[in-house]
Amino acid sequence: MNGLMNKYKESLKNTPKPVMPSEVPKIKIELKELLAYSKLKNVSPIDLTDDEKEKFIKNSG
């Protein structure tokens, strides 16, 4: 059991701290438009380039 506890403690050291809600950027994603765009291109939304996805992300903060 000692080996498992050591692995657990090591994993805790490597775990990043929680992200506070105030640290999360305030953005709005135009999901409907993003999905329509990806459908037009006959690709999954994940297969769009970062530049293409950026067109549908707006800062709201």
Relevant terms:
3 helices, single chain, 61 residues, two-stranded antiparallel ribbon, 2 strands
Helix content: 40-55%
Strand coverage percent = 5-15%
Low-confidence spans: none
State the order of secondary-structure elements, H for helix, E for strand. HEHHE
Mean pLDDT, all residues: 92
- Judged by helices, strands and strand pairing, the structural class is mainly alpha
What does this 3D model show about the protein?
It is built from 3 helices and 2 strands. The chain is mainly alpha-helical. A two-stranded antiparallel sheet has the order 1-2. The mean pLDDT is about 90.
Q: Can you lay out the helices and strands and say which pair or pack?
A:
Elements: H1 2-14, E1 27-29, H2 31-40, H3 50-54, E2 57-59
Antiparallel strand pairs: 1-2
What would you say about this model in short?
With 61 residues, this protein is mainly alpha-helical. 46% of the residues lie in helices and 10% in strands.
